Amino acid sequence: MASSAISAAPLPRFPDTCSKSELAGFLGMSGRSIDTWVQRGVVVRAERGRYRLLESSRRYCEALRERAASSPTNGTLSEERLKTLRVTNQIKQAELAKLQLETITHDELKEPWTIFASAVRAAVEGIPHRARIAVPSLTDHDQRHLQAICRDILLDIAEEAKGLLGDVDHKEFGNEP
After folding, report:
1. Could you give the number of structural domains in the chain?
2. Position 1 pLDDT exceeds 50
3. What angle do CA 57, 63, 64 make, to 5 degrees?
4. pLDDT at 30
5. What is the pTM (predicted TM-score) of this model?
6. Could you give the CA distance from residue 165 to residue 163 in angstroms, rounded to a whole number?
7. Domain check: are 129 and 157 in the same one?
8. pLDDT given for residue 6 in this prediction
9. DSSP symbol at 156
10. Can you say how many angstroms the Cα of residue 65 is from the centroid of all Cα atoms in its chain?
11. Alpha-carbon distance 157 to 125, whole Å?
12. Range of 56's domain?
């Protein structure tokens, strides 16, 4: 039965030191990048113009592993993928609901909202008359003032509805262009 320990293949024999261009070629980078890694303390100099090949390679690999482990893109990328999946799922659910006739189109809402807006308009415009009946001491001037207030309220609602509903039939709110 084989032992559970993994036996490593014998490593080829590498020189202890090498030149900057040899190390750059071995690590797949430029000579300028070697200088940057020397400044960061990753690439190890042996003597003038020479670098420790195996130790520099090991340290370079460790630096890359540390950078990858601390990279914010790992978590962020997963979070972005999750957000994308959620939005895609919401879009598919909306499309499914539309196919199953669970949603109402703008055209289907237009007539009921027009009827509702007419009823609101009639009720608001009836306030001054009802006030005159409820409070007999109100003068004609008071009633006209209440009518102006009610008209202003309807116009304000019509303006707010423009932004929410797009095309609004202003006749329903008493604002004919």
Report:
1. 3
2. no
3. 90
4. 92
5. 0.38
6. 6
7. yes
8. 60
9. H
10. 30
11. 14
12. 17-70
